[in-house]
């Protein structure tokens, strides 16, 4: 953090040198804000670093936009305001009070702190030239081993799911086949048992009816015999 604050002081001196001899108003005040961190996936080749600013008491003329890079305890002037490499870096005015730095052919070597600066060249106010706190740009490297591991986990999961589905289908098919085979013989056995029971009951009923019908004749013979 101390090195970054020292760097900002150096940049302010650089601003004074770049804009030396510029003009007039002392009430111009600029505030610059940047996101602290921006991550880029290994597959990304172009990134845009954003920078927002507000200006009060400044002229209506567009400000100068400057970008610096801080890495390994040294800083590099990327765009002040012209860029050192027009193919690699480009400055865009996204909208009013919003600018961005485009970085092409992004590699892990571009990992650094990028500092945005805004300066109104027609003002002599010390607050007319300000920098942000910087954005830490991080591009991740491609992890081949992790990719293979993830692929193996996904393939294993799909194979297990497929095997489980086939086994479940086979079990259900076997159970349904057995229930279908024994369903109708069981019904036939129940129906035949009922018929036998009904036949026995009817036969017993017939015997009781016959005995009941024969009993009055016997009584009548005994009475007649006794009277005689």
From TrEMBL:
PANTHER family: IMMUNOGLOBULIN SUPERFAMILY MEMBER 6 (PTHR15297). The chain crosses the membrane at residues 149-173. Keywords: Membrane, Signal, Transmembrane, Transmembrane helix. Residues 1-24 form the signal peptide. The lineage of its organism: Eukaryota, Metazoa, Chordata, Craniata, Vertebrata. The keyword Metal-binding does not apply. This is IGSF6 protein. Residues 49-132 form the Ig-like domain. It comes from the Eukaryota. Pfam families: V-set (PF07686).
């Amino acid at each position: 953090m101390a090195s970054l604050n020292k760097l900002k002081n150096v940049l302010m001196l650089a601003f004074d040198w770049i804009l030396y001899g510029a003009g007039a108003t002392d009430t111009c005040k600029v505030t610059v804000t940047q996101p602290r961190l921006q991550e880029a996936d290994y597959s990304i080749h172009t990134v845009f670093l954003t920078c927002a600013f507000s200006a009060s008491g400044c002229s209506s003329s567009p400000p100068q936009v400057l970008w610096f890079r801080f890495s390994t305890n040294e800083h590099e002037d990327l765009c002040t305001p012209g860029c050192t490499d027009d193919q690699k870096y480009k400055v865009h005015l996204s909208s009013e009070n919003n600018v961005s730095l485009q970085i092409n052919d992004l590699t892990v070597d571009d990992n650094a702190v990028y500092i945005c600066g805004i300066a109104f060249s027609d003002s002599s106010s010390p607050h007319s030239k300000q920098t942000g706190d910087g954005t830490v740009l991080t591009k991740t490297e491609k992890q081949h081993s992790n990719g293979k591991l993830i692929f193996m986990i996904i393939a294993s999961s799909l194979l297990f799911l497929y095997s489980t589905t086939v086994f479940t289908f086979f079990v259900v098919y076997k159970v349904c086949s057995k229930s279908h085979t024994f369903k109708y013989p069981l019904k036939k056995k129940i129906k035949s048992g009922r018929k036998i029971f009904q036949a026995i009951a009817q036969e017993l009923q017939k015997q009781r009816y016959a005995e009941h019908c024969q009993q009055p004749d016997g009584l009548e013979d005994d009475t007649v015999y006794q009277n005689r």
